[in-house]
Specification:
The chain is α+β, with helices and mostly antiparallel strands and 128 residues long. It has helices at residues 5-20, 32-39, 56-73, 99-102; strands at residues 24-27, 47-50, 82-88, 91-96. The strands form 2 sheets. Strands 1-2 form a two-stranded parallel ribbon. The radius of gyration is 15 Å and the shape is globular.
Length: 128
Amino acid sequence: MMAPFAVLKKVWHSWIDDHVDHSLQLSSQDQMLDYFKQSEPENLKHIMITPGDPTTEVLAACFMSKINAILFDQGLAVRCHKIEIIETPTNTVTFSGDPAESICTDHYAGAELPWWQRPDMSINDLEL
């Protein structure tokens, strides 16, 4: 083991438990974003913005990118090569491969790194 498992688990679980769990997942093009910006700006921090429709497949690719950004930021030579999200007892999404090839980033062209490529605890790129 190249890093204490407890350290990696703590960072990942903190992001999932404190930021992802119970977040509202919206596409970066969803018109509801304007409503939240104007009427409920205090809730922007609870909205996960996905590139394209917020499908479980997109989430899996974003999650893999996020965990790899965290691993890289901690100076670890390990990378996540497969991620599984269990939606229901009978439906699981498995993602492996390069997230950059699967995530549509047209909306983010020329911008800073999107949230899923940053090692911070963000789930969107909205400014309060």
